[in-house]
Structures are given as C-alpha cells and as structure tokens.
TrEMBL record:
GO terms for cellular component: extrinsic component of postsynaptic early endosome membrane; glutamatergic synapse; postsynaptic recycling endosome. Keywords: Coiled coil. This is GRIP1-associated protein 1. Residues 160-209 are annotated as: Disordered. Residues 180-190 have a biased composition (Polar residues). Residues 160-179 have a biased composition (Basic and acidic residues). GO terms for biological process: neurotransmitter receptor transport, endosome to postsynaptic membrane; regulation of modification of synaptic structure; regulation of neurotransmitter receptor transport, endosome to postsynaptic membrane; regulation of recycling endosome localization within postsynapse. Residues 31-159 form a coiled coil. It comes from the Eukaryota. It comes from Albula glossodonta.
Length: 276
C-alpha cells in the first residue's frame, strides 16, 4: 500500500503533518499563555480577596471604634451628670449644715437663758457657741431638756398657786383679827389696840412682799413660757432640717445607684465590643 502512494500524495501528507505540528505548537503556546494568564488572574483574585478581607476588618474596626467613641462620650456625659449632682448635693448639704449650726447656736443661747431663769437671774444675753454633737444626739438632748423644762414650769406654777392661796388665807385672818379688835372696848384694851395696829402694819408689809413675790413669779412663769415656745420652735425647725437631709441623702443614693448601673452596663458593652 505504501508503494501505491504516489509522490504527490506523500508530499501532501507531509505538508498536512507539518501543518498539524505547527498548529500543535501554536496550541501549546496558546495553552502556556492561557495557563500563565490564568495563574496571574488567580494571583490577582487571591490578592483582591486578601485586600477585601483587610478592608472588611478595617471597616469593622472603624465601626467598633465609632461605637466605642459613642460609648465613651456617653460615659463621660453620665460622669458629668454624676459630678454635677454631687456638687449640687454638697451645696445643699453645706447650706443645711450652716442653718443647723445657726439653730444649734440659738438653742445653746436659749439653754443658757433657761439656766439663768432656773437660778433666778432672769433672761440675760448669752454668747453663742457652735455645737459639734451629732444631729440625733442633739435632738434627744433637746427633747430631754424640753421635758425637764415642762416639769420645772409645772412645779413653779404649783408653788405659785400655793403661795397665792396662803397669801389669801393670811389676808382673811388679818381681816378677821382687825374686826375682832374693833369690837373690843377702847378704854380697857388700849394696849391690845396698839398691838393690833402693829399687827396690821406687819400684815400690810407681808402682803406687799407677797405681792412682789407673786409679780416676780408671774414674770418668771411668763419668761419660762416664752423660752418653752422658742425651744419648741427650734426643735421643730431642726426636725424639719433633719428630714430634708434624709430626703436629700435618699435622693442622692438613688441617683448614684442608677448612674452606677448605667456605668456597669456601658462597661459590659465595652468589654463585649473589645472581645469581638
């Protein structure tokens, strides 16, 4: 069969073989080029994926940073509110303590006046001195002092009534004695008349003394009543101030608790954001 092939067919087949080899070489070159391009594209894709991941991380960090900044600004705002409320409470507390100090000074002065009244010296101005005892102890002391003052006033009033009754009895006896001496015979009882006159003079002197004592006692009772009223007023004012202080402390504690809870929540949020 090989002998049957002509030279022309042989050349044609050889040309076809060369053409096929040439095409094969071209296809091989194209394959290498395409493979190189594919590898380059894959590298670009890998690089782009890495850049995309980096961009996502940067974006996530940026969002977290914005959230952290927002939380920090909110935290600073809450701390500012807390400091402002603490300053307001300190100012109110200072004002109330000054008023308490003034009231304590006035109460001390009233106590000194009360001591002067007990000693029989009347009302006298006393120098005020600041007190340093706690509020509760001061209130208890004032209540005890007030109770003692009321008992003292009751005793003075009782003594005053007894003296008035005894004075009335003395005056009645003097009147009876004068009537009895007036009915006696003037000729035979001259000495008795003179004694009666002396008795009347002494009775008048005793009456004047008793009236003076009664006037002084009435004045002292009146002064004690005024002191008692002042003490009641001061004690009531101090009680009201104590209630205001307690209300302010309760309000401050409530606000502090709320702010601490909000700060704790913000801290938890910050920790969670940082963990992510």
């Amino acid at each position: 069969m090989a002998q049957a092939l002509s030279e022309e067919e042989f050349h044609r087949m050889q040309a076809q073989l060369l053409e096929l080899r040439t095409q094969n070489y071209q296809l091989s070159d194209d394959l290498r080029k395409n493979t190189a391009e594919l590898n380059a594209v894959r590298q670009k894709i890998s690089t782009l994926e890495k850049d995309y991941i980096k961009a996502q991380k940067a974006l996530s960090k940026s969002k977290k940073a914005q959230e952290v900044d927002a939380l920090l600004s909110e935290n600073e705002m809450l701390q500012g509110k807390l400091h402002s409320q603490e300053d307001d409470f300190r100012l109110q507390n200072s004002t109330l303590m000054q008023e308490l100090s003034k009231l304590c000074s006035q109460i001390e002065q009233l106590e000194q006046e009360n001591t002067g009244l007990k000693e029989g010296r009347g009302l006298q101005p006393a120098a005020s001195s600041p007190t340093s005892s706690p509020v509760d102890g001061e209130l208890l002391r004032l209540q005890a002092e007030n109770s003692a003052l009321q008992k003292k006033m009751a005793a003075l009033q009782e003594g005053y009534e007894k003296e008035v009754q005894s004075q009335k009895g003395v005056e009645a006896n003097d009147e009876k004695a004068s009537e009895t001496h007036g009915q006696m015979d003037s000729n035979g009882v001259q000495s008795h008349v003179e004694a009666s006159v002396k008795g009347e003079d002494s009775a008048d002197g005793a009456t004047d003394q008793m009236e003076t004592k009664c006037t002084k006692l009435e004045q002292r009772v009146k002064e004690l009543s005024e002191v008692e009223l002042q003490l009641h007023t001061e004690v009531e004012e101090k009680r009201l101030l104590k209630e205001q202080l307690q209300a302010l402390e309760s309000s401050k504690n409530t606000d502090m608790t709320k702010l601490q809870e909000e700060l704790a929540k913000l801290s938890d949020k910050l920790k969670k954001k940082q963990e992510r």
